[in-house]
Amino acid sequence: MQLEYATLDGLLVPNFFGSDNLYDTDSVERMLRHFWSFREANIEFFSPMSSETAVLPLSGRFANVTKLVDTYLAEVAPDVNLKPQKMKSLMEALPESCRTLDDGMYRALDIYFKEHPWLPEREREQLCTIINWSRLSFEACTHASQNERLPLRFILQVLFFEQMQLRAALSNYLRVVHNDNMTSAAEEMTGDIRQGDGWVSVVSENQHLRVDMERLLSKVRKLEEEFVNIKQEMGKVSKTNIFTISRRSISRTLGCTSMEEPQTSWS
């Protein structure tokens, strides 16, 4: 009931029995589920014994707990003996409504995939369904869109949500500019957006880079096709030239032996 005041070291209890896991994840999972059951039952939370520690509001308590849980997940994720089912149950111990961003869970899941490269695609997809991909920050979206460890369909989801965020930001900006009808106000708004929501310009540049990359790849493919065609034509020409030269050499040789008499000198 005082989980919001706990520390990471307090949760990293070594596991001495019951499984091969490095840490006692079962106890932590029970703590998280009891913590949420107390919240649903509207049971009054215990305040810390120390008078120097300020009592946190309810929103602050959940923010601390979710941050603590995400840090804990990232710490236990490298354990090679941690089963996907246990990782999934730990990620689901707190409901989705407790989080405003899923960056911490995504970071922990990425570490888990990196340390468990043998996981089949089906189990990867089951773990990925726990994350709300529309609640990633721009930095997390950028990382996830280029993460080869994620299943392909979730990468496409990230790209879709990234594009939706960009469209929403640009439409809000254009609406403000249209209402102002002033060039100076528009310039100030552009500066505010670039400073306050710098990710808009970054996403736009990212989209342009992707388009340029696709065009470059298309040109490279065309050049490769032309190179293959030229190589084939050169091969045909070389074979024709060799055949023609061989015929001429044979003809000259035959002509010399049939028309010219050998000259001999006698002593």
Please give a handful of descriptors for the protein shown:
267 residues; mainly alpha
List the helices and strands and how they pair.
Layout: H1 8-11, H2 25-40, H3 58-76, H4 84-91, H5 103-115, H6 121-128, H7 138-145, H8 152-180, H9 183-196, H10 199-259
Helix pairs in contact: 3-5, 7-8, 8-9
Family: Belongs to the NPH3 family.
Protein name: NPH3 domain-containing protein
Keywords: Coiled coil, Ubl conjugation pathway
**Shape estimate:** flat
Please tally the β strands and state the result: 0
Overall structural class, as computed from helix and strand content, comes to mainly alpha
Largest sheet: none
Binned strand content: under 5%
For the terminal residues, how far apart are their CA atoms? 127 Å
**Mean pLDDT, rounded to whole units?**
76
Global Rg: 35 Å
- Poorly predicted runs: 50-55, 257-267
How many H/I helices? 10
Q: Helix and strand string, N-terminal first?
A: HHHHHHHHHH
Multimerization state: single chain
Portion in helices: 55-70%
Family: Belongs to the NPH3 family.
InterPro entries: NPH3/RPT2-like, NPH3_dom
Pfam families: NPH3 (PF03000)
Protein name: NPH3 domain-containing protein
Describe the structure.
The structure is a single chain. The chain has 267 residues and is an all-alpha fold. The protein has a domain at 3-44 and 57-132. The protein has helices at 8-11, 25-40, 58-76, 84-91, 103-115, 121-128, 138-145, 152-180, 183-196, 199-259. The radius of gyration is 35 Å and the shape is flat. Mean pLDDT is 76; it is low at 50-55 and 257-267.
